[in-house]
Amino acid sequence: MRGLLTVPPVASRPSRQLRNIIDSLHALRATVDFHSFGQVLLSPWLYDERRPVHARMLDRAGTEMRHNMNAVAGRIYSFPGAGGNTMYTASGTMVDWVFAQGQQLRIPTMAFVVELRPVDWSPGFMLPASEIVETGEEVFAATTTLARIVASGEMDAWAAEATDGALALRSQPRLTCPALGTAPSTDVL
């Protein structure tokens, strides 16, 4: 089409750098893409309304993350599930890309968008200073919940259960971490 501006995937320098970092990780198992605002967690797919093969795995993790975020200060974060199926479709998201990379490698991967405070346009992107610490604590609750699910092996069990063993999962080497005990060798970004 004449006059149509086409931009290649990962055209910007920051996008390329992030892609290179993710590509360098041998087994990325989880990612969270933080945004402002809306107080909602979303899982893949965002680009269309299909639910992914590991939807039940994502639902369980997202529900735990939401519960732990809500427990911090009583703010209500929702988790409707797959973003494209429940809220809006969006193409080219990091969450869908990372999740798809895991599918290609046959490694179950957790990927979420977390829309942080506030819940609506008022005050929108200008979070009051009085809410910054609690928001950080909510972020910490979400990420530590996700890290625990990945490191404990729960994620692999849920993935196998969710697919009735149909997806042959690539086995992960085990390592010992003083804080978490024995866990799969994983990268969490």
How does this structure look, described?
By secondary structure, this protein is an alpha/beta fold. The protein has a single domain, classed as Zn peptidases (Aminopeptidase), CATH 3.40.630.10. It has helices at 13-24, 55-73, 83-86, 94-105, 132-152, 154-162, and strands at residues 28-36, 40-43, 78-82, 110-116, 174-177, 181-184, 187-188. α2 (55-73) links the parallel β2 and β3 (78-82). α2 runs antiparallel to α5 and α2 packs across α6 (154-162). The longest helix is centred in the last third of the chain and has 21 residues, at 132-152.
* Proportion of residues in helical segments: 40-55%
Alpha-carbon distance between the two ends: 39 Å
Number of strands: 7
Would you list the SSEs in sequence order as H and E? HEEHEHHEHHEEE
CATH homologous superfamily title: Zn peptidases
- What is the beta-strand fraction? 15-25%
Structural domain tally:
1
Structural class: alpha/beta
The residue-averaged pLDDT reads 78
Number of helices: 6
Tell me what the CATH architecture is: 3-Layer(aba) Sandwich
Return the CATH class. Answer: Alpha Beta
Biggest sheet strand line-up: 3-2-4-1-7
Shape: globular
